[in-house]
Each structure stands twice: as C-alpha cells, then as structure tokens.
Specification:
The complex is a heterotetramer, with two copies of chain A (347 residues) and two copies of chain B (327 residues). By secondary structure, chain A is an alpha/beta fold. Chain A has one domain: Rossmann fold (3-Layer(aba) Sandwich), CATH 3.40.50.970. Chain A has eleven helices and nine strands. In chain A, the strands form three sheets. In chain A, strands 1-4-5-9-8 form a five-stranded parallel β-sheet, sandwiched between helices. A two-stranded antiparallel sheet of chain A has the order 2-3. In chain A, helix 1 packs across helix 11 and helix 2 packs across helix 8. The longest helix of chain A has 26 residues. In chain A, 60% of the residues are buried. By secondary structure, chain B is an alpha/beta fold. Chain B is built from twelve helices and 14 strands. Chain B has a five-stranded mixed β-sheet with strand order 9-11-10-13-14, with helices on both faces. A four-stranded mixed β-sheet of chain B has the order 5-7-6-12. In chain B, helix 3 runs parallel beside helix 4 and helix 9 packs across helix 10. Classes of the chains: A alpha/beta (347), B alpha/beta (327). Chains B and D meet through helix 4, helix 5 and helix 10 of B and helix 4, helix 5 and helix 10 of D. One magnesium ion (MG) binds next to strand 6 of chain C. One magnesium ion binds next to strand 6 of chain A.
C-alpha cells in the first residue's frame, strides 16, 4: 500500500458540535455504548471461533470481519437509533448481520450449513439471502450487485410514502464495478434516500487500493454524482455512529450520501486465502495496534462506562455464548435433501 | 371485440394493470414523454405521472437492479430493455440475481417483476437491433419466459405476468408490433403462463414455433394443406415453463415433429423441444425430429439480401414440411 | 432542458497562449482549415442527403451528425496532425468516419446497405465495424461498449512499444453506463494513453441531461479517476482542435484526459425518432443560431482564408460529389446472399 | 511423461505460450502476486513482470472489454474470470461484442483471445461459487467453447486456444483442478479444438459428457461393465464447435444415447446433443434419447445434503445406464 490509511480529511466535519451535555454524541446514551460494546465483543469472539472451526473442517468458508467491527457496529447503531432504516450489507458484514438480532446459535448454524439457517436455510453461503425480520437483504456474492437493489428498495419505500433510509455496504474493490457507478448516478438524479457505505480496507483480496483506483478517497467520487462524500475513521465506533447518523438525516431530507469508512482487514481475505503471498506480516501486526475492540475497551473504561471487571464479564459471557452456540449448531440437523426443489417460485 | 396490433395490446395490458394496482410502474429509457421508442408507454406519463413512469439514465444493469430492489419492497416494476440487443449489460441482475432470489431465500422474498424486451429481426436492424435472446432465459431456473405471437396472447399473458409474484421475462417480437393484428376482447381476461396453444389442428405432423415465426408457420401450413399435408401448429407462447404436455400430446398423435425459430439453431429452444420428444415420445416418432432455425451466425445482417437469407420464411418452412411429410 | 448549454468553465484553459505568429493555433495552417472546412461542408451535405433518402425509402436508418460537425472534425484534425492516433468513434460520428478518408460513394453505399460497404460489407448498420485503413474501429451499437475496448487498444499499443494515443467518442447518455466508469477507472490506474471524448448534446434520445446526471459537466467526473477533465465549446472547430491537441499530448505523456465537448443535436435522435414528442420546436430553432457550419463559414471569410466565392464553390462541389455518390451507390449491387455464412471466424 | 493435476497443466500451458510469444499476456483479479485465487498464474508476475501479468480492478466488464481491445491491436490476452458466477457483468463484451467482431467486420478484425473461466460445483460453493455457465456460450455463434476434463486435454487444448485467432471460452471445472491427475507429455503438443474424444470404447450404448461429470461417467461405465453393459464414453472436450461426427458415429454404432452434465437440464448442452441424434441418427436409435443432468434450480445449494442431492454422481449414472440398457 502506497497510500496512507488514516483518513486525511473528512469532507464534512462529522463531529461538528452535535455533542450532548454529557459529552456523548447526539442521541446516544452510555447504555447504548455498553450494549454495542458487548455486541462488538460477541462478534469478535464469534469471528475468531468460526475461523478455528474452519481449520477443524467444520465450517467451509468465512470472510472475517476482524478490523471492521467498529465500522459495522457504529453504522448499525446509528441505523437502529434512527429506527427507520433498511440494510443491504455485504459478505464481510458479520458484525451487522449478527448484531442486528441473530442468536449466536443461528449464526453458527449458518456457518455450518445447518437446517434453520436464518438467511436461506443453508442454501447459500453463511448469512446470505434475507433476514427480513431484521430489515436486511443480501442476495448474492457478486461484488456490488446489491447497490442498485438498495437504490431500488429505497425508491420503492418512497413510492409507498415511507420515510425509510436504506444503507448499502460495500468494499473498496466494489467501487470499481460499473454497477456502483450506475447505482450512485441514478440515486443522485432521483435524490433517492440511500447511504452508500464503503468499508475501505485498502485491499480487494490481494489487490491494493493503488491498483484499484488512482485516488485516495472513494468518497471523492460523490461529487460526480451531485451529492456529498464523507470520510470517517472506521476504526472508531463513536465517529462512525456520528457520521452515519448525519448521513441518514441528510439522505432522508436531501438524497444520497457516500460515506467512506477507513478500516483495516486484519485477516486474510477469507479462510481460503493466504495473505502472506501479497502482504508483509509486519503490515498486519502494525494494524493490530489500532484494533477497534481494544480501542473501544480503553474508551469505555476511560469514560467510566465500564469497569475492568465488567469488561472481563462481557468477554466471559461472549465465550460462553459462543461455546453453547457451537455445540447447538454442531448437533443441529442438515437440511433434508427432499427439499432440494422447493421454493423456486412463490405462488 | 376490437381489432388491435400487438403494440396496442401490450400498451393496454400495462395501462389496465397500472390503473388496477398502483404498485405497478414502468421504468426504462425514453418511457416518459417519448412514450418509449416503440410507443408502448405512449400517454403513460400524462396519466400516471413521473413517479410511476420513470425515465432512467442510459444504464441497463441499473434499470434491472433498481427494479429488482423495488420488487423486494413489494412494488411491481415493469422495467423495459429498449432493444434486446442492449440487455447484455443487465443479465447479471436477471440471471445472476433476480432468478435466484426466491430459491436463495428459501421462498422468503418474492420478486414480482416483469422485464419487457422487444426482440427479433426482419426490420433491417442488423447485428445490433435484431437479436434473439430467449435461449439464455430459457435455460435459467427461477425465471418465467413468455413470448407471445398475437395481440390476444400478448395482452392476456402480459396481464398475468404483471400479477405473477415471480420474475417474468416478457419477449415482444418487434416485427409483430404493427404487422400482426387480431381480435382482443373488450372485457378483461388473463391467460395462464406455461400453457401452449394449438393454433391449428392437424394430423400429418406437428410444427412447434413461437413469436414472429408462428405466423409464417401458419401460412406454410395453409400452403401445404392444399397438397394434403395436414399440419398441427403448436404456439408455445410460454417458453419457460415449457408446456411439454401439449407438445407431447401432439407429437404422439402425429408422429412427426418439426420446430421452427428465428434464433440460431445450436442450443436454441428447438433443441430442448426436440430432446423432450426424442425422450418422452420416442415410441411414437415416425421420422427424424427436425429443426428449421436461424443459421449459426451472430444474427441477421443489415443488407436486405443477407437478412432475407438468414430468416426462415413461409416458403422455406413449407419446403421443410414437405420433406418431413414425405419421410 | 433545465441546464444552460454553453460551456461554463473550461477546466484547463485550452486556448492558453499556444497561438502561432500568424494568429493560428499551434500546428495549424490556413490550408488545414480550408481542408477541414471543406470536409465539414461535405459531411453536412451528405448528412442532409441521407435524411432525405431515408424519407424516400432508400436508407433504412441514420443518426444525424448535424450540430456535432465542429466537434467531430476539430478532434479529427488534431488527431491527424498528431499523426499517431487511433479512433473509436460512435454511431453519431459521421463526420469523423467520412472525413477520415472515405469517398462519398463508400459512405452512400453504407447507408444503402450495398456490397463493398467499407466497415462491414453491409452486414452492419452504416459505417459500423472497422475501417482499419483509416485507424478506426467501432464494433457495435451498444452504447459505451467501445470505451473499454479503446482502453485495451491503447494498452496494447503501449505493450507493443508504440506511442499511439487512442481517442474514444461517446455521448452524454453513454456516461451513465457502468462500463464508462470501468474504462475510466482502469485507464486512470494504469495511466493508459487515451482521450475520452464526450460529445455532450444534452440528450439521450428523449432523455435530457437533467434526467441523465445530477451534474453540469461530465468532465467533472475525471477527478474521481485521478486525471484531468476539460470542457470545450464543441460548436467551434478551432477550440476543439486546440483542446484535443492538448489532450493528446497529455495522454501520451501522463495518461488519460476526459474531454467534454458541448454540442447540440439539431435533428431528431435518428430517422426513426420524432422529437416533437419531447422537445419544443423553438428549442431547435434557437440552437440553429449556433450552427457550426455557419459559424465556421463566417470565421473563414472573416480571417481571409476563403472568399465568398470560394465558399460557394466548396458548397457546389459538395453537392456535386454527393449527387454522384447517390447515383453510384444506388446502382451498386447488394451483397450476395451466398456469403451469409462467410467469415464467422478467421483461420 | 509426468503426472500433473489439471491446475498444473493449465499453468504450464500458459507459461509455455507466454515464453513462446510475448504477445500473450494474462489479466484479471489477483493474477499478480497472489498468483490467482486458484494459483493458475503462480510465479507469473515474477517471471513475466507487471506489464504481462495485470492485476485489474474488480470490474469484469472492463476485464473483457480491455482484453478485447488489446486483441484488436494484435495481442493475445488471456483474461480470467475469477469464478464463473461473476462473469455475468461481462457477457456484453463476450456475447455482444467479441463474438460478433469477425463476422461484423466481414473477417477484417481477428480476436485472438482466450477467456479462462473456473466453473462448476461439488466444492461447497453454494449458489454463487458453483455455477455452470456453458449454455450461453454454447449458443453463441462466433465463439469457440472448450471444456476439458483431464490434465492432458486441458494443456493441449489451452495451448491451441491461445494460438487460435478467434475468441475462445475456456472452461475449467474447479473440482477437477486438484482432484484429477493424469499423464502429461514433457514434449510440446497441441490438441485440436472441436474434436471429441472417445474415452472408453463400448457397444451397448453411448454416454456423452464433459468436465467433471466425465470422470463419474467413466466410473459408472466400469461399474455396469461388470453387469455386461458395455458403455462407450464420449468426452466432448469442445462444446462449440460440437463434434457431431464423433457423436453420430458412436450413436449409430450403439443405437442408444445418454447425455450427462452438471448444468441444469432444460436448454443445456445435452438438449442439443439429443436433438442432433434425434434428427441425424434417427434411423439408428433403439431407445429414447435420455439425459441425466442437474435439476432445474439455480444451482447446487451450500448445505452438504443439498449439494449432494443436486449433483449427478457415479451411482446415479450407473442406475440410469442400467435403465436405458434394459430398454
Ligand atoms: C463480481 C465479482 N467479482 C469477483 C468476486 C470475487 N471476490 C470476492 S470478494 C473480492 C474482493 C472484494 O474486495 P472489496 O470490495 O474491497 O471488499 P473486502 O473483501 O475487502 O471487504 C473478490 C474479487 C466476486 N465475489 N464478485
Ligand atoms: C446499451 C444501449 N442501450 C440503449 C441503446 C439505445 N440507444 C441508442 S442511442 C441512445 C441514446 C444515446 O445518447 P447519447 O449517449 O447522449 O448519444 P447521442 O445519441 O445523444 O449522440 C440509446 C438509448 C443502445 N444503443 N445501447
Ligand atoms: Mg477491501
Ligand atoms: Mg446525447
């Protein structure tokens, strides 16, 4: 990577004086932060366990969210606080999908391909399909295919007279796809209430950002579509919350926003990848210095929202829950092969 | 009954459904004030307004992806591809995505969407305004594919397609738009997707076709009937699901099968029809299963002489019928 | 059209002090201008005749270049003066294709679909296929499909150690296609020697620019690809020549340029279109005030490059040539149907 | 002779051709330092440098369009689609453009380009990492389509494809990459595109297949041979042009035909093979022309039980062979 990874210049100052009297950003309580900190720990614990289970041959595939947790959960928090958002995440968004309301056992079933998997009943890769109960759709693995769908969904909501804002998530690699351009252009022309959220981790599998685009910030493309682009430090949950919150408000009132969250990918692309071929080991080690879980732990203690003891409890609880989920999913049944031809169509 | 052209029938079908259900809307290039390049949405923007008659940017992948997303929300989009030749940039959203949504969510997310595609040649469109594109969709599980030949079928099937909760590819042969006229009832009617129609009963042999070619088949059947060859003409109308029952019933009765289509021969719809007969009606076959189709070149060229040479027509079909009947 | 059509702000001042002592722009002689003025008149005369022949049933289809002539010929002039350019025009570029070296009879054969048509031997729409003798390729009618091909061609030239610059032409509508984005992004990353030339006439068939994009200038998108975007008055041949010349020089040395030429479409989209459905008649009448042929005639006389008499001669010569071409093409043979299956493959 | 896997054979074929002709180059996602996600270009960037081993942005349409443009200039690009499932955004440049260039310029502009596409399932890839995509290309005049099953065929055919002056779609079944091993000569050799290979001679019936399924067919033939059913197994190797001569010769000899493929049944390659036999070998047929193919759902699901249920395998093929033999 030739480019500096830290965000150089948020286009809009997302932290601009929206703080409340208690020092917390607009609309947030310490309760919220404790809840989302716990979620973050749970997601990280799950993510690590899944990787281990892959090595044991129990999980065929996983794209790790490690390094993206603050970005994913900060956005989710803003969406949930808003109360009227619909999400189109992508394959790396374990944080969003899990924290949106799935139980650890449901998640574990997904990765093991067991019956009752919540997104597709194990027809698809883990957590891919739709979780309508939690306002989430992700149909496919085809990079960037969800963007136009998200725009259409938001347009549909508006046609129904609703105030819904759609958040669609994608990577830096996805920014190169033609459909990304088409989605943003349409959204700009029709002022569709959608937030384009780019989780820029500087890599598309092995391809570094410098081979993906000739610019520093994906967000700078927004101007070409007539709407604002914003860069935020995606390693910090509170900054992400604030930036997402503002983006949602803007989207509802005036149309699209492109929100770029600078994050890091701590793990290889997926469990199938070996990143030593293209990435020096020190690079990852250095990045780990900015681990969003560690950062947030420090913040929570520093701010007095949690004690060291509580932090440890949260950790222990996550481990317990994931252990339990692993056992439950392991024991769960595989889909019945007689269902193979079912539900190709609805009536 | 009123006599209408195919384009009028298509327009009326959409208009009636848009009046009936305000979730139905159209989108595509030039569908607004222009009323579509073939005028299939003429008068729509005046009647239904800009929010239900959406002039899109020139970007087919987004037309399909946005329609699909709106369908997720429960709307009933009718996206239009201006000419079939321009749909290739959009096939990921159709074949890769739309077709897999219902199956890939185990039935939890319906896709009520109709993709209208003017297709086919015989209009001096050359390599990029004449393409037949049915084979890809015909091969895609999760899609329904309709290809009517007459105003009556076009209207009844389009209305059914719009009410269907699954993605339907609706193929309109451009040359039939103004060339083919027919009676269309004033009263509302629907025709079921997936049911072929025996457009002419006969006993000597079975001739299966669809779209523009159906009309040439009917003409050819008349031509050879004077010679004592009594052809049964089956109009598939729907390509997917394929109405195997009607095809097999006819073949079992006549013992001989010929398929005619404008699309290229190799790997076309005709191959499947032939394969079905060669398997499931094998014991009834009295002669080789034959196909008269477009030759294996990209599609018909621009020059009149070459376009004519490409296309099956009444004469070529009659000749092939004579040959098969004589077997 | 809600947007003003006159270019508001050339990003780079393309006229910046490159004039020669005789007042002509760098590299140009009055000879060149006379030659290209004559070409312009020939193209316009051809274009009008073709439209007439369509109404007589002799020509199935035509996309008129009227209003685009200065843009097309100014670019061609710069490319030819440069001497090492390869062109990927689009369907509206009669000016480029004809002036690149075809005889009026060849052009007329194209429109009538006669044997010997230079681009495809009448297999394709008029002047579509390849005219390799004149360094031109245009494979298809699929809007924007030529952009990535042009980038690949330029990349290929560079791989062969050549200095060729590729110019690829497209409309404002084409800017919305995903492939346009992909072509520009790749070109930016790999600094491919290509000039993206947008002939922005404010319409894609009936769709006005305001429904095509939420921005005033297509050229402003270049920033998102890390290369310069330039706006030029496409109704003026000399300005276009200068801007194109600079773009070619830049492309060869540093990589892509996006050059937007603001032009007007005087006629309906094609002979199949009826623009009264979507465009007030006065709009076109007003535009005709800025007819590039009239503008250039005035300029040539004003500058003393041509006399009124010479102008009339040029006009008469064009009419004579087109008459002759019409007769010759009319008498020419249609392609032999026995060739239908030929040349699907080369050996 | 050395024993190699399919992926090794593919890599060697490209390496040899890149050494031989510096107009040959590879491009695609992760083909650089990563060596491709399946390692088919492992070591290439080190040997041939960045200008001939191009890591592209994540944008398939441009990968194909740029390759095509480079081919216009006389280079010999080998663009890679990382997984078949992701090729849909690029089909305009392949089916709409590349396939029509030669015909659409009346032979004046050759397109020497090979599109490599890892495809197929049986690897727990689910709906978006398992797709069979051959039917579209099989139906496209102006393309050649190759689908080898063994390392020997893969190497010899890929080298021929790279030297071909026409666009070739080269389909590599992902599951064969490491599973299938076989002898590959040290000395250079080429295999002709368009010629099928009788992988096992037999007299009772003809079994036509390609890709991964070919191996299951051979196993099934062994299984039933113990029961006195002597199966001739024809490996198509090239799908387009289809080697009708070899198919027909075999069918005329055995009188019975079965086609096996992993791709969905309806409108697949098997339909064409069946149709050809039902027409041109009609008088030799002793039984229905049968097909054992993937069922008509998008493709195989992720769950092991469902993937297994989707895929034809040795046992299912043997059972179908017994049934047809008994007819
Ligand atoms: C259209 C398409 N092409 C290729 C792939 C294979 N692939 C999967 S993820 C990926 C990289 C994506 O990178 P990015 O968008 O930056 O997201 P990240 O994985 O870094 O979060 C690629 C090439 C795909 N899934 N879809
Ligand atoms: C991919 C594609 N979609 C649709 C069309 C039909 N079509 C032909 S030209 C055109 C408008 C193009 O507008 P623009 O790019 O601005 O060029 P102009 O005709 O104005 O010069 C359309 C929609 C096409 N040829 N290709
Ligand atoms: Mg990334
Ligand atoms: Mg335009």
């Amino acid at each position: 990577m030739t480019q500096a990874r830290a965000p150089k210049r948020p286009r809009k100052n997302s932290a601009k004086g929206s703080a409340q009297a208690d020092g917390l950003p607009q609309g947030l309580t310490s309760q919220d932060l404790v809840e989302y900190y716990s979620k973050m720990v749970m997601v990280r614990t799950m993510d690590e366990r899944i990787w281990m289970l892959n090595r044991q041959g129990k999980v065929p595939i996983s794209a790790s969210a490690q390094g993206h947790e603050a970005a994913q959960l900060g956005s989710l928090l803003a969406a949930r606080k808003d109360g009227d958002c619909f999400l189109f995440p992508y394959y790396r968004d374990l944080g969003i999908k899990m924290a949106a309301g799935l139980t650890p056992t449901e998640v574990m079933k997904s990765f093991m391909g067991k019956a009752g998997e919540p997104y597709s009943n194990a027809r698809q890769f883990p957590l891919q399909g739709a979780d309508l109960k939690h306002n989430i759709i992700q149909i496919s693995n085809v990079v960037a295919a969800g963007l136009t769908q998200a725009v259409g969904y938001a347009l549909g909501c508006r046609m129904m007279g609703e105030k819904t804002v759609v958040l669609v998530f994608f990577g830096d690699g996805a920014s190169s796809q033609g459909e990304t351009h088409e989605a943003m252009n349409f959204a700009g022309v029709h002022k569709v209430p959608v937030v384009f959220v780019c989780e820029n981790n500087g890599y598309a599998i092995s391809v570094p950002q410098s081979s993906q685009m000739a610019i520093a910030d994906v967000a700078s493309r927004a101007e070409g579509y007539g709407f604002p682009g914003v860069v935020v430090d995606g390693m910090d949950l509170v900054s992400v919350y604030e930036a997402t919150r503002e983006a949602i408000i803007h989207a509802r009132a005036e149309g699209p926003v492109l929100l770029e969250m600078k994050v890091e990918r701590f793990m290889p692309h997926t469990t199938d990848d070996d990143d030593r071929r293209y990435r020096p080991a020190e690079e990852v080690e250095n990045l780990r210095q900015r681990d969003p879980v560690i950062t947030m732990t420090a913040y929570m203690i520093e701010q007095g929202f949690l004690t060291q003891e509580q932090v440890e409890e949260i950790d222990a609880e996550a481990k317990r829950a994931i252990n339990e989920a692993t056992d439950a999913a392991d024991a769960a049944a595989l889909p019945d092969p007689s269902t193979l031809l079912d539900n190709l169509f609805v009536d | 009954m009123a006599v209408q052209t195919v384009i009028e029938a298509v327009r009326e079908a959409m208009r009636e459904e848009m009046r009936r259900d305000d979730k139905v809307f159209v989108m595509g290039e030039d569908v607004g004030k222009r009323g579509g390049v073939f005028l299939s949405t003429q008068g729509f923007i005046e009647e239904f307004g800009e929010s239900r008659v959406i002039n899109t940017p020139l970007a087919e992948a987004s037309i399909m992806g946005i329609a699909l997303g709106a369908a997720f929300r429960g709307l009933r989009p009718i996206p239009e591809v201006q000419f079939s030749d321009f749909l290739w940039p959009s096939v990921n959203q159709l074949v890769g995505e739309a077709a897999r949504v219902c199956y890939g969510t185990d039935g939890n997310l319906p896709v009520p969407m109709v993709v209208r595609i003017p297709y086919g040649g015989g209009i001096r469109g050359g390599l990029f305004h004449s393409q037949n594109v049915e084979a890809l969709f015909f091969h895609t599980p999760g899609l329904k594919v309709v290809a009517p030949a007459t105003p009556y079928d076009a209207k009844g099937l389009l209305k059914s397609a719009i009410r269907d909760n699954n993605p339907v590819i609706f193929l309109e042969h451009k040359k039939t738009y103004r060339m083919v006229r027919g009676e269309v009832p004033e009263a509302e009617y629907l025709l079921p997707i997936g049911i072929a129609d025996v457009k002419r009963a006969g006993s000597t042999l079975t001739l299966v076709s669809y779209g523009l070619m159906l009309h040439y088949c009917l003409e050819a059947a008349e031509v050879v009937s004077a010679e004592g060859i009594d052809v049964e003409v089956v109009d598939l109308r729907s390509l997917r699901p394929l109405d195997k029952a009607t095809i097999l019933e006819s073949v079992k009765k006549t013992g001989k099968l010929m398929v005619v289509h404008e699309d290229n021969l190799t790997g076309g719809v005709g191959a499947e029809v032939a394969a079905v007969a060669a398997d499931e009606a094998f014991e009834y076959l009295d002669g080789p299963v034959t196909r008269l189709c477009g030759p294996d070149i990209p599609t018909m060229p621009f020059a009149q002489t070459l376009e004519d040479a490409y296309l099956p027509n009444t004469e070529k079909i009659a000749e092939a019928l004579r040959k098969l009947a004589a077997y």
